[in-house]
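Data deposition worksheet. Section B asks for the primary sequence of the deposited chain exactly as it was used as input, without tags or linkers unless they were present during the calculation. Section C holds the resulting structure in token form. Section D is free text for depositor observations; keep each observation to a single sentence. Incomplete worksheets are returned to the depositor.
Section A, Depositor: J.P.
Section B:
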Amino acid sequence: MNILINSIVGLSLFGLVAVSISLLGPILTPFFLGAFLAYLGDPWVDRFEAWGLGRAMSATLVFTLIAAVMLTALMLLLPLLALELSELLQGLPASFLWLQSTLGPLVADWTGVNLQAVDLKGLAQKFLGEWQQSSDIMGYLLGQLTQSGLAIFGSLMTVALTPVVAFYLMRDWDHLLTRLDQLIPRPQISVVRQLTAAGDEMLAAFIRGQFLVMILLGVFYAVGLGLVGLDMALIIGLVAGLASIVPYLGFILGLLLATIAAAYQFQDWVHPVYVLTVFVLGQILEGSLLTPWLVGDRIGLHPVAVIFAVLAGGQLFGFIGVLLALPVAAVLMVLVRYWLGRYLASGFYQGDAGAATCTPAEQAAALDMPTAEPVESTAFEVDGSAPTTDESNL
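Section C:
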């Protein structure tokens, strides 16, 4: 009966959270972005704090460094990205026409499909619409944005609130975790901390590790393609870096786009070989250095599960769902592993009359998770002060 009640309560809470996210999605963006930045910066805040700086000073220093890096990147990349995007959109119909005339005969010989009958240039011009007539793509986008007062207000609120939320969460991160730790029932504290440690490791691999891998790969591809002389180096590098969240997707997509762009721009076979060299080196760099160093092998999510999580999150909750898809999937994977271990140790699975038993250490080894240390149950003061005999965090 207790299991049934707990399951009903858990499902009710999950449904309440899902409905709240769906209804409050438009105003939750700065809070999730702020939490994302705070989670990225918390290890550095802890490190500075260990060196003797206060928590507030450490958070201020880390926040300033993150803001400086982001502003510098925007100031350097945004003009170049706008220029490349403008050139790409203006040359897209001609590129489609060249692609049709070059690959059309090959496709017709291999498959019997006549691409010459498709008006790709007309489709591109119809798709681009007003963009094709605009020489300033960023100005056009800003003009479209300012036509909606609600849209520009929401964007300004996101830009203004995200740094504020990030700073306060970064400063109070450990304090918030300690408060949450105090709310956990003492009999279940060991299991909850074990699951939380495994979930934190998963999230760290995704949010900190994979995020850095995506950035570094995007920079590597953009610089490499720039050295090759490709005009669309920055855009293709960013696309390949972002797509690398799914294993091999960034490599395949970036290589395809860069090869077509190089063949159209240089009209030879030498530069596509250079492009292939850049992406092969990037794949070697990712597999031998970046992923083992920054991510490790503890994610455990299949690439198909990653794709499904991102698409499902976007379909259910929009942009907020995309932001939450991978963290939620990582946490759910930890819970699935835990309940799978419980199921494999049960009498129902093993066919015994009584339920099988396993120690926390055996279960942790089966689930490939760190074993939680036993904790001492403590009493809390009425005023909410922190416990004196249990100082561990989640």
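Section D:
The chain has a mean pLDDT of 76.
The two ends are 29 Å apart (CA to CA).
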